[in-house]
Specification:
By secondary structure, this protein is of the alpha+beta class. Among the domains are: 1-48, Uridine Diphospho-n-acetylenolpyruvylglucosamine Reductase, domain 2; 169-259, 2-Layer Sandwich (Enolase-like, domain 1). It has helices at 12-19, 33-38, 74-79, 81-86, 88-94, 100-105, 108-114, 121-127, 141-144, 211-219, 244-259, and strands at 5-7, 24-27, 46-49, 59-62, 65-69, 131-134, 138-140, 145-147, 150-151, 159-165, 169-176, 183-192, 195-201, 208-209. The strands form four sheets. A five-stranded antiparallel beta sheet has the order 4-5-10-6-7. It has a four-stranded antiparallel beta sheet with strand order 11-12-13-14, with helices on both faces. It has a three-stranded parallel beta sheet with strand order 1-3-2, with helices on one face. The relative contact order is 0.12. The model has no long low-confidence stretch (mean pLDDT 94).
Length: 260
């Protein structure tokens, strides 16, 4: 690991200024960035540590919306009685991210900013039609994810919170790679005011919506509606853990389990 400058700002404005510096990286939970640095896959000139910004932590539920501060760790989301009551599937997802260390150090904001193709939170954010708040603007879930490790965030832009509309119904299922606990396939289904949304991670180069399943579940919200749905494997990923065709076959199976 090469040398780097380190800053721990005490205000969001200071953090944004520091993060706008040349080749600076924001440090949230560090559960993705620090391993990448140790392996030589990332070599930022500076780290901007957000752990001192207490205002970016916490969970509130009001007006049919669950709002989670960007620096709230996964364990806190999983343990929140408010989240468990409002969106049980979201609490379940958070409680199954990585291992105990990752859940107690990793944050929702860090996960979304990193946008790992096999991360769990992007599926929930996209399926629940969440809104990502930053120090500069709000970004709809459909506009946030841009590709492999790519998002709509500009240089120096800091995620401050994520707002989830409380759905009428929602469910989540994950088929994990047992060593890393990342998703081989991860499916989140939700039915709300905007209709039915089904989001998938782990299966492709980034999170995506499965329209074929959305159409079936919109007509009939039941596990049986997922039977026989074919997912095109052409744009999916294949590796030593599972072929693209295998992942395509898993998606409707997990969607059926998520609907219950």
């Amino acid at each position: 690991m090469q040398a780097f400058n380190y800053a721990k700002p005490s205000s969001l404005a200071d953090a944004a200024r520091a993060a706008a510096g040349a080749d600076a990286k924001i440090l949230a939970g560090g559960q993705s960035l620090l391993p990448a640095m140790k392996l030589g896959l990332a070599a930022p000139a500076a780290l901007v540590d957000l752990s001192g910004l207490g205002d970016l932590k916490g969970i509130t539920v009001s007006g049919g919306t669950v709002k989670i501060g960007a620096m709230t760790n996964h364990a806190a989301v999983a343990a929140s009685k408010d989240v468990q009551q409002a969106i049980p599937a979201l609490a379940a997802l958070a409680g199954n991210i990585g291992d105990r260390q990752v859940r107690n150090r990793g944050t929702i904001g860090g996960s979304l900013a990193n946008n790992d193709p096999a991360a769990d939170y992007p599926a929930a954010v996209l399926a629940l039609n969440a809104t990502i708040h930053t120090d500069k603007r709000t970004i709809a879930a459909d506009d946030f994810f841009k590709g492999v490790y790519q998002t709509a965030l500009n240089d120096g832009e800091v995620i401050t919170a994520v707002s989830f509309p409380v759905p009428e119904k929602a469910g989540w299922q994950k088929f994990k790679q047992p060593a890393s606990r990342f998703a081989l396939v991860d499916v989140f289904v939700a039915k709300g005011k905007g209709g039915v949304r089904v989001a998938v991670t782990g299966a492709g180069p980034g999170v995506f919506r499965a329209k074929a399943l959305e159409d079936k579940l919109a007509a009939n919200w039941s596990g049986a509606a997922c039977d026989g749905v074919k997912i095109d494997a052409g744009n999916l990923s294949g590796d030593l853990h599972g072929s693209a065709e295998y992942r395509a076959a898993l998606i409707p199976v997990l969607a059926k389990r998520a609907v219950g």
